[in-house]
Please model this.
Amino acid sequence: MFSGRRFIKAKGVCLMTCLEQKFCGDARCLVKGPQPIASFSPNRQRRDRFNLYCKACCVRRVRQYRAHEKTRRAARKVAHVAREVKSAPLPVPKRKKPTLRDRVWEAISAGRARTQEQIKRLVGVGYDELGDSLAELMLNEGRVKTALIKGGSVRIYFPGPAPESTAAAAAPRSFSTLRGLMPTLDAFRGLKP
Model:
């Protein structure tokens, strides 16, 4: 494969001193015989310190590789788009997540929970959020009624009659507008500090 070679050992490294010509390793090389060393690129990893292929074959091989990669990537992209279109699921409308008020109403109307502790455990919220939801269901919407049992020590909640649509729209949105719940000044006049 080589013509005219001599090796010199220096510091454990084999150096080429007289390599004038070399054969290209590509079977499809246009030059069938030995070529001058100037037509090979340097390659320090090889024993003879020159590339296996001549510069013309390296250029040809890189161009072939790039052309092949371009067509391969285009084909993969077309196949990927076709696969996405084929397997794309139909859009499913998202279900609206029930609000806390809806979950409390469901627990009360189904009869699964009657006391505040049972509702809290079933719905999984704190007393503040539960109190807000119960107040809205009782006062604003009128869907929940309440009663005291066991001598006034336990309060139970149960579904009340469905309010009329006009009554729900006219329901006050603030506690201050509910005169029956707010204490009057007459109740405090008899108290002495």
Notes: Strands lie at 2-3, 7-10, 13-16, 21-22, 35-36, 40-42, 50-54, 144-149, 154-159. Residues 55-87 form the longest helix (33 residues).
